[in-house]
Design a protein that fits this description.
With 326 residues, the chain is α/β, with parallel strands linked by helices. It folds into 2 domains: 11-97, Alpha Horseshoe (Serine Threonine Protein Phosphatase 5, Tetratricopeptide repeat); 117-313, 3-Layer(aba) Sandwich (Rossmann fold). The protein has helices spanning 11-25, 29-42, 47-59, 63-76, 84-90, 102-112, 116-123, 128-143, 160-165, 179-186, 199-203, 225-232, 267-276, 311-316; strands at 148-154, 169-176, 193-196, 210-215, 236-249, 255-257, 263-266, 280-292, 295-305, 319-320, 323-324. β1 (148-154), α9 and β2 (169-176) form a beta-alpha-beta unit. α2 (29-42) packs antiparallel against α3 (47-59) and α3 packs antiparallel against α4 (63-76).
Length: 326
């Protein structure tokens, strides 16, 4: 998905870009790229134009042309709005920065918000909230849990996960980078509180308050999992539960950036990260999360628990190697 059209300030260039868009809609991406190149001869500093040119080259199978366009874009896109760094990294022409590309993700979902549910649920068969909710319900039943006092729904979007949680949570808080997404979900009246924030920064100000944290298709934009878990776990109460999804890959790399600009996480590396974070894995499943460009996207669904008694607290009470000192 490309960012919303931004005018070049030149009528002729905008007209050529408009014709290029029509050609792209007819799947003639090579011709669309030719027209965009003509437009950019008139306005060489037009960042949105270079973004479109890169997209058309990529869809035409001209990866070198796409990389060249994104190199121009990178030089113009100081705030990272168009994700040039990510696009280059995903095609082996650079390296993505650490953590979430905040400006890119925020702009992406601000644009996506009005049609988010129709595109994701109706067209792509997105079922992550339903699957995570079913797993949570099973664990609640197994452990005799009636409900949760306070939950954080990270990357709440338009409230698809929140709708599933509402009946079992006393105080439900949603967090999202996108103001447009928050505006969409606010209309539904699902959450007791909504916050516009980057999740790691948000969690740094929370300490042991949540007995449930959810993140449905959120960490796929965050890169490496350990830093995210390092932020999440301190925000949880002892005994609190964490439910989240990831896109999966079977390789040895802990994480890599796909051409979709979403991160895929290794199955073994994800298990290891959970253990290192001090979490008890309750459920760990792989499943098809949705379709993307006609192909099924396999992911990981996790329900984990923060130990009911902190190890540090146990050690303070005289435990040594798992045994209480006499």
């Amino acid at each position: 998905m490309t960012q919303a059209f931004h005018s070049s300030g030149d009528v002729i260039a905008d007209r050529r870009a408009g014709y290029a868009r029509l050609l792209a809609e007819d799947k003639d991406h090579a011709a669309a790229a030719d027209l965009m190149e003509q437009a950019l001869e008139l306005v060489p500093d037009w960042a949105a134009g270079w973004d479109l040119l890169g997209s058309y080259h990529e869809k035409a199978g001209n990866v070198s042309g796409a990389i060249s366009a994104w190199r121009h874009l990178e030089a113009l896109d100081d705030n990272g709005l168009f994700g040039a760094e990510l696009k280059l990294a995903a095609h082996g022409a650079g390296r993505a920065g650490e953590g979430t590309a905040v400006s890119y993700v925020e702009a992406l979902f601000d644009q996506y918000a009005p049609q988010f549910e129709a595109a994701l649920v109706d067209k792509l068969g997105y079922r992550v909230p339903e699957m995570l909710d079913a797993m949570l319900n099973e664990e609640m039943s197994r452990q005799g849990i009636d409900g949760f006092a306070q939950a954080l729904d990270l990357g709440c979007g338009t409230g698809l996960m929140g709708e599933k949680l509402r009946g079992k949570v006393g105080f439900l808080e949603g967090i999202d980078l996108s103001a447009a997404m928050i505006a969409e979900t606010a209309r539904k009246g699902i959450y007791d509180r909504l916050d516009k924030a980057e999740l790691v920064e948000f969690l740094s100000h929370r300490s042991g308050t949540a007995d449930l944290v959810t993140a449905a298709d959120v960490f796929i934009y965050c890169g490496a999992l350990p830093p995210v878990l390092s932020a999440v776990v301190p925000a949880m109460q002892p005994g609190g539960m964490l439910a989240f999804s990831l896109e999966a890959h079977d390789g040895e790399e802990p994480v890599f950036l796909r051409a979709s600009l979403r991160y895929a996480h290794g199955v073994a590396a994800t298990r290891d990260a959970l253990v290192v974070a001090g979490l008890e894995v309750l459920r760990f499943e792989t499943a098809v999360l949705r379709m993307d460009r006609g192909q099924p996207i396999t992911g990981i669904l996790v329900v984990a628990r923060k130990p009911p008694v902190e190890l540090t607290a146990a050690n303070d009470h005289g435990e040594d190697g798992g045994h209480v000192a006499a």
